[in-house]
């Protein structure tokens, strides 16, 4: 069974207590939906019934995906000196689980319209959008959970620098080297560093979330204050950029934005502090390796 939406991997997984409350929220950070969100004091499920239907559940299986990003620069001075430098980063995350469940909100556009008819909900959404530096926020439309699994995060960084020099002897007036060619010399260095962190998930947790993008829209309205009417519109599903980690059908892959050593300590959920210790300074997940039992043929980045 395939995933019909794009589910963004969280850097801080959420405990099972969030399952009844997450769908219908509006958040500012798609990888940290618990940091800043609305509504805070009431549950969207109490406003619109059946926002969260029963999940689709997958049993055991496996999948593995990995990508690498980087850059390379080369140049020189005439044909005498050549310089080169490159850097690449491979980031990965793998989840092995006994069971994966997919929660999906039906008819997200209509559901958002119904929620916005509630005065308290609408006020909270307007307030959080005013706090957004980008002018948009993310409406939670579904999520993935895993039960009794292992979450591993890896990062491999490679750097390469090279300097080469060529002696232009053949261009000299009295050159007798014939077909030997100009002598040249090059030297450089390469450095590779790998960091891996694993945590045992002993409970049911949320590890990836699907979103619609919402934003404020202003229009001329003679009946509104200052003749400007502000409304909130749903722009549809959040698209995936090349540096995003998202699980989806292979045919759904896109790159546009909405605007143009192992540690086996057991914990109930993984947070960013655990993923950011001295052995794993950053968790800038640009690529993902995903290993989940039961969905090997349907998940892709």
Briefly say what this structure is.
With 301 residues, the chain is mainly beta.
Describe this structure in words.
With 301 residues, this protein is mainly beta. It has one domain (7-171, 181-275). 10% of the residues lie in helices and 43% in strands. It has helices at 44-47, 108-116, 119-130, 272-275, and strands at 7-15, 26-27, 37-38, 56-58, 69-77, 81-104, 136-166, 184-201, 205-220, 228-237, 246-247, 266-267. Strands 1, 2, 3, 4, 5, 6, 7, 8, 9, 10, 11 and 12 form a twelve-stranded mixed sheet that branches. Strand 9 (205-220) and strand 10 form a beta hairpin. The longest helix has 12 residues, at 119-130. It is flat. Mean pLDDT is 72; it is low at 61-67 and 255-301.
Task: Name the helicity range.
Answer: under 10%
Would you tell me the structural class of the helices and strands? mainly beta
What is the alpha-carbon Rg in Å?
26 Å
Tertiary shape: flat
Mean pLDDT over all positions: 72
Largest sheet: 12 strands, mixed
Strand count: 12
Task: Outline the fold blueprint.
Blueprint: E1 7-15, E2 26-27, E3 37-38, H1 44-47, E4 56-58, E5 69-77, E6 81-104, H2 108-116, H3 119-130, E7 136-166, E8 184-201, E9 205-220, E10 228-237, E11 246-247, E12 266-267, H4 272-275
Parallel strand pairs: 8-12
Antiparallel strand pairs: 1-9, 1-11, 2-3, 2-7, 4-6, 5-6, 6-7, 7-8, 7-9, 9-10
């Amino acid at each position: 069974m395939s995933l019909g939406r794009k589910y963004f991997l969280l850097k801080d997984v959420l405990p099972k207590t969030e399952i009844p409350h997450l769908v219908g929220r509006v958040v500012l950070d798609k990888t940290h939906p618990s940091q800043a969100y609305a509504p805070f004091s009431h549950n969207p499920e109490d406003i619109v019934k059946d926002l969260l239907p029963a999940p689709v559940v997958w049993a055991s299986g496996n999948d593995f995906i990995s990508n690498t990003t980087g850059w390379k620069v080369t140049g020189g001075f005439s044909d005498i000196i050549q310089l080169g430098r490159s850097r690449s980063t491979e980031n990965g995350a793998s989840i092995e689980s006994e069971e994966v469940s997919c929660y999906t909100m039906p008819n997200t556009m209509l559901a958002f319209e119904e929620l916005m008819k509630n005065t308290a909900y609408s006020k909270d959404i307007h307030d959080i959008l005013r706090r957004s530096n980008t002018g948009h926020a993310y409406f939670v439309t579904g999520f993935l959970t895993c039960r009794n699994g292992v979450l591993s995060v890896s990062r491999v960084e490679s750097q390469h620098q090279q300097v080469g020099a060529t002696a232009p002897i053949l261009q000299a007036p009295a050159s007798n080297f014939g077909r030997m060619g100009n002598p040249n010399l090059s030297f450089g260095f390469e450095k590779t560093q790998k960091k891996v962190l694993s945590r045992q998930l002993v409970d049911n947790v949320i590890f990836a979330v699907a979103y619609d993008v919402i934003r404020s829209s202003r229009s001329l309205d003679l009946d509104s204050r200052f003749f400007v009417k502000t409304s909130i519109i749903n722009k549809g599903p959040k698209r995936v950029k090349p540096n995003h980690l998202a699980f989806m059908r292979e045919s759904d892959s896109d790159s546009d934005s909405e605007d143009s050593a192992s540690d086996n300590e057991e914990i109930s959920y993984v947070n960013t502090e655990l993923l950011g210790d001295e052995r794993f300074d950053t968790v800038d997940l640009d690529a993902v390796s995903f290993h989940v039992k039961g969905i090997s043929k349907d998940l892709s980045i």
